[in-house]
Amino acid sequence: VLGLALYVFYVTTGIGLARTMPGLIIGHVIVTCPFVIATVTAALVGFDRSLEEAARSLGASHFTAFRLVTLKIIGPAISAGT
Question: Does 60 score more than 90 pLDDT?
Fold first, then answer.
């Protein structure tokens, strides 16, 4: 139903996305984005910020602490969303 509604929207507005790859990608992103947001948000709610602060106090930069601590912990939620 959502796919048909999106197709009708594309055709009636005349924006040129009906039967094109960008139109298909936009439709898939619209449908799947809430699921990704829900899983990643659930992982971030249970995330302990003191772990990242500990990495920062040991000399890691903001990006390094995010990459090595935060992404490692919420990685399963990100992969579940993908």
Answer: yes
